[in-house]
Amino acid sequence: MTDTAVLDIASRMLKLIAEVTAPILITSLTIGLMVSIFQSITQIQEMTLTFVPKLAGVALVILLTGHWMLGQVVGFTRDLYAMIPHLLAGA
What is the DSSP string of the chain? Predict the structure, then answer.
């Protein structure tokens, strides 16, 4: 296994992580920003107010995109297993 193969696998892994986590992170960030603006306007400084909307939003995103996320991770894992003979032959 060469160092270029390791770097290729690592870069593909990081790209996959960014793609899979993007919907959850964007949703959490958007809901947090909206709640923060709401808190600033109404001057309600309750720390737990952000937790429930974020939890509900992230749960909804996982419900809607979870199948796609799982498919991406499983596809990446299958590609890694398919690469094993090629990586061992190059050693």
Answer: --HHHHHHHHHHHHHHHHHHHHHHHHHHHHHHHHHHHHHHHHT---GGGGHHHHHHHHHHHHHHHHHHHHHHHHHHHHHHHHHHHHHHHT-
**Mean pLDDT for all residues in the chain:** 92
In terms of C-beta density within 10 A (0-12 exposed, 13-18 middle, 19 or more buried), how is residue 52 classed? exposed
CA–CA distance, 62 with 76 (Å, rounded to integer): 19
Q: How confident is the model at residue 91 (pLDDT cuts 50, 70, 90)?
A: low
Distance CA 57, CA 38 (A): 16
Q: Tens digit of pLDDT for each residue in 73-83?
A: 999 999 999 99
